[in-house]
Design brief:
This protein is mainly β and 167 residues long. It has a 4-stranded antiparallel beta sheet with strand order 1-2-3-4, with no helix packed on it. The chain contains no helices and 10 strands. The radius of gyration is 15 Å and the shape is globular.
């Protein structure tokens, strides 16, 4: 288990994004979270910790039986958690929308959980037909996500994420 990135909201609650190869028998997922069952392989995870550190508010998996990992995390003013990372699986959970729809060898992704961690408001691939990794994420004042990373794809789709924030 590895926590890669940490974000904090205005009330001091901490959000950790990382990767795990641990099943729900040993990894602390919470009831009602989006992903409560380990998919096998390496799953990404998001955990929210109370400001005083006394409790786990929620903890969820996000992944497949392949290799999935979080690259960065940010929290918006409404408490929604935005994550980015990479997956090598075409079955990675995603919603429909304007950003890259078909996977390459490995793809970057961007996703947003609602404020309780119970569901994905959006999840999209970013990339082209080769290897793509997302390692940085920033939000503007309107909640638009900006993703930074690396690509080996010569056909990287270039598009604005504006408009997916309201999905």
């Amino acid at each position: 288990d590895r926590g890669w990135k940490v974000a904090r909201d205005s009330s001091g609650q901490a959000y950790v994004a990382g990767m795990t190869q641990s099943s729900e028998a040993t990894f602390p997922v919470t009831s009602g979270a989006y992903g409560t069952t380990w998919s096998g392989g390496q799953d990404g995870f998001v955990a929210k910790v109370a400001a005083n550190g006394s409790s786990l508010v929620y903890s969820t998996y996000l992944g497949t039986s392949g290799l999935d990992a979080m690259g960065d995390i940010a929290v918006d003013a409404s408490g929604r958690v935005h994550v980015t990372g990479s997956t090598d699986s075409s079955s990675f959970p995603r919603t429909t929308g304007p950003v890259h729809a078909s996977p390459g060898t490995a793809d970057a992704f961007v996703a947003r959980f609602n404020s309780t961690g119970a569901w994905l408001e959006y999840s999209r691939f970013l990339g082209g037909s080769d290897v793509d990794f997302a390692q940085g994420l920033a939000l503007d004042g309107s909640g638009n996500a900006y993703v930074a990373g690396q690509t080996r794809s010569s056909n990287l789709q270039r598009t604005s994420l504006q408009g997916i924030q309201g999905v």
